[in-house]
Amino acid sequence: RKEVEQDPGPFNVPEGATVAFNCTYSNSASQSFFWYRQDCRKEPKLLMSVYSSGNEDGRFTAQLNRASQYISLLIRDSKLSDSATYLCVVPPNSGNTPLVFGKGTRLSVIA
Amino acid sequence: DGGITQSPKYLFRKEGQNVTLSCEQNLNHDAMYWYRQDPGQGLRLIYYSQIVNDFQKGDIAEGYSVSREKKESFPLTVTSAQKNPTAFYLCASSIGGIGQPQHFGDGTRLSIL
Q1: How far is the alpha carbon of B99 from chain A, nearest alpha carbon, in Å?
Q2: Which terminus of chain A, N or C, has fewer Cβ atoms within 10 Å?
Q3: In Å, how far are A62, A68, B66, B95 from A56, measured between CA atoms?
Q4: A11-42 pLDDT per residue, tens
Q5: A104–B58: do the CB atoms touch at under 8 Å?
Q6: What residue in B sits closest to A96 (Cα-Cα)?
Q7: Do B43 and A87 count as a contact with CB atoms less than 8 A apart?
Q8: By the 8 A CB rule, do A84 and A37 touch?
C-alpha cells in the first residue's frame, strides 16, 4: 500500500455545496496528520492539523478514521475562493524521515 | 516579519551551468527541506536537513547538492548533471524536527534557456 493516496479529482462543485475529500494512509501507528491548501502556481499553506479527535475551523472539518486508515476534509458552503488543490500530509512508513505529501485533490467551485 | 525567503523568484539556466537557489528562514526552525514540483504534479523531496552541518537525500537527490552551514540558511545547487531541471522549487522549514508541519517559502521557478 502506498504511504498516502488521494483522489486527484477534479471535483467541480457549485457555490454553496458541501464537498468532502478522503486521503488514505498506510502507517497504522500514525498519530498526526495535516491538510494543506495550494493555489495555482503558489506555495502550499497549512490549512489544518488532524489529531485523534478531529478538528473544525469554520466551514472546514477534518476527521480521522483509524480503523479504515483515512483522513477526510469536509468543506461546507463552498466559496469560489475555496478553489485550490488540497494536499494531505501523513507520517512516513519508515523511521526518521520527513512527513509525506499526497499529490493533492483539485477542487473547482463554480458560480 | 518571520518567514522563509526564497530567491530569486525566477531563474534561467544555460545548458551545462550550475545554479544556486537561496533559502533563508528567520523562524528559528530546526529542520529545512527542498522540494521539486512539476506542472500538475505533487511535491517530490530532494534533500532535507535536521541540524546544522547535516543533511540527508530525499527521493530525487541526483543532480542536486545542498549545504547547511547556518541554521537559517539551506541553499540548493542544481548541477549540470540534472538534465531536466525545469520545475518549481520549494523550500520549507519546520520547528522541532521532521515530524512537525512544514512552512513554505514562495518558491523559485527554474527554466532552461
Answers
A1: 6
A2: C
A3: 6, 21, 38, 23
A4: 999 999 999 999 999 998 888 899 999 999 99
A5: no
A6: B98
A7: yes
A8: yes
